[in-house]
Amino acid sequence: MTEAGRGELEGTVRVSEIPAKATKSTGSGNPSDRARPEAAEDSGLGGATRDSGAARDSTAGETAREAVGSAGRGAVGSAGRGAVGSAGREAVEPAGRGGESAEGAGVMGGQGVGDPMWQTSPPGSMYDYIKVASFSIGPDGLVDQWSLRAEQLFGISAERAVGMDPIEAFVDPDRRAEGQRKMAEVLDGREWTGVVPFRVPVPGGEEGLAEVYVMPTTVEGGERAALCIVVDVRTLRRIETDLAASQAIFGQSPFGFLLIDTDLRVRRANQRFATIYGGEVDDHRGRGVHDYLQSPEAERVEATLRRVLETGDSITDMHITGFVPGSEERRHWSVNLYRVHSGTGRPIGIAWLAIDNTARRAAAREAAAARRNLALLNEAGSRIGNSLDLETTARELLDVVVPNFCDLATVDLYQGLLVGDETPPGLADGSAELRRVAFASAVSDAPFVGGPAPVRVGAVHHYPFNSACSDALRTARPQEVPEEGNLIQSTLAVPMVAHDTVVGLVQFSRTKGSEPFGERDRGLAVELAARAAVCIDNARLYRREHERALILQRSLLPPGDPEASGLDIACRYLPGNAATEVGGDWFDVIELPGHRTALVVGDVMGRGLRAAVAMGELRTAVRTLALLDLEPAEVLSALDEIARGLGTPGGVQSTSRTAASRPSDKDLSEVYLATCVYAVYDSVTRRCTFANAGHLPPVLVEPGESALMLDVPPGMPLGVGGEPFEEVEVELPEGALLALYTDGLVESRDHPLDEGLQAFVGALTDPGQPPTTLRADTPRSLEDVCDHVLNTLDTHHGEDDIALLMARVQGLPEDSVGDWTLPREPRSVGRAREYARGRLLAWDLEPLVDTAELLVSELVTNALRYGEGEIRLRLLLDRTLVCEVWDAGLVQPRRRRARDTDEGGRGLQLVGLLSAAWGSRRTPRGKTVWFELPLPGGEHGLTDPAEALLSLF
What we know:
Number of strands: 31
Strand content: 15-25%
Radius of gyration: 60 Å
Distance between the termini: 173 Å
């Protein structure tokens, strides 16, 4: 075979023409007719041998059909195509050269130039997948022609293959004898076809299985030769398996499967896709994207298809929405796209795999909605109720729901509950007045256009009886409100129920464009309203308790500005904010006999109404003990006993008696602890005696000096018991400033106690500049000093109550004090009257002379008769006139009612009638009996002595 002939073997002639041309020269007497039965009987080379000469017609067309029957079955398999590409092309030239007849030429010449049978096959034909080769065997039984396809199939070059004995080279030794016999028959003019195992004749060569079609031919000298067409059977079987699997996958897939060509038209669709969109599978052939999807979704998908076709980038999980024929339900698909290539790598289309995930997306939306609801409830639990303020709690609810749950929301609370009424009128039928306490919107006020006028925050209103809101309040069930406006789509009126009591109403609204409220939203709205209602009800109860405790506490504090002899008093009390409960801080200013003053500041540990009540009990006890004129240490000891008995029925004595028999009762008692500092100031001597029960130390500011904390030994807090209290006496200079306070003034979360004390001392050291109306050397008023201290320190934290008591020392002048010592003799009575008359006239108190002489005479007489030691008479003039008679006797005078027949026993009665107040107190060296007279022109008029004497009888 020439090189030109070899080139023609690689041409484009269809396989159906190859057998006709190859066998035409044999005529009707083709020896293959005789060889076919033998070949069928001797198929000893490996099975699948077929007889190709049974009753065959001698025409070229019949011969062509035989060739297609043998080569086509092996080469094409399930592909259904009778074309064997390069094998057919290689088979043409040897047959033609062997003796092409006029009939054969007529067949070729009869085809037009434009006949597609003779055109070049496009890339991507079956021959890109099927391994087909051809070679020729000369008369000597050796290879004389070796095609390029043969080189690719067997891996042996033409230079090496030409001249080889194919039987010796490719057939196993145990089959070579049979192979040589078959080769002789072929060279004798017989055709043969069959499946033959082969081995590549190289070290480690691969083994294979080939279907061989051997066709006898003749060379130029008339000698017989053979043309062999070889097909790799294993490749065919793999292709057949792949095609069957592909067909099964494509046809049986539960997903919509499309093959789209390069023109973006459906080339093939599977049954699942046809079931969804209706019709038969072939009905969808040639359709485009716009036949299934609406604009603009179709344009988006078409652009994506073009991008996949151009770039080769696959698309995974592309979301597509649309409708299927006969349904108004919007469907959702997840589409995967990838470009499909031929065997040569040329793009031939796009594979479309669609999964209907409408139900999955619906379930995902439900799950997402459930997660959002849980997250919203969790956020509501953490954000609602952080404060105990009604309005703040309502705003916290709206901050949670807008815009996460709705676009607009309002909160209305019953006006009666806000002002403290337990059951406001109209609560049962929903007609009671409500106050709009909160409003929030994620949009402008436009949604109210065309609807009812909005209720402003803080306004009091009520809903009509037949309205949905009123119905929700009556039934305690959520109601859907019909909207009159043109922008609000859906509104829910949800009652706020706490402890089976409706406290208000919350409305949730969504504007048009948002999803209307569903059953799940309704349940969530009820839960949110219930949580907020509990917090609001707790805030309401707390506000009520806070207000009551504050009223109680303020009622127990000194009313107005306290006054004291020899002291300028200023005080401040700042309760904690609404977020904190009322504490037990208190202060008191108690006037004592002899122009003395008791200053008290205390703090009950704990908060709330119980702390306020305990504070009231301790304050009352302090005032009672102070009027007994006990020493400061004795007062605190008595208070300690009282504090220990506050939480136990029957007091401390009852607890002590039952502690041994029933120790468990102590666990049921409440423990009350308190700190207190108690000071007694004498305006005559300007001396102050302090006793401290675990309280912060007093601060003293002397004129021209820095402030300092007094070293008063801190005892144990009241209620602990078992430890005595110490007293410290300090002489206060004229103009000195004394400050008593509670820990709320100097301690907070941001400022530790030591830092606060230093700041307080610094604020008192530099009380600020005096007003411009005063001289530079004029001290500021105590009111200004208090304001300066509160403005300087951090007093707005609201964490605790603040009590501040400040006193500036203003001792009695010497000319306001009269002091005399009298011997124990009867003449001292008259001398005492003379001293009293003279001093009263000097003080220009003539209206008091007669009464004072009479009462002084009575007290001195009692001291002579019942007392001991020398007698001391002292007159003190300040806001009132005080007369004191001192002696060394320890027996306290006791007032009794004298009978009509008694000659004595009416002196103390007379003192009580004529004086504003009288009493006696113990002193370190005896006792003091005193009486007090109001000054002329004061609020309290003088008692007429004559009427007082007549009242005794």
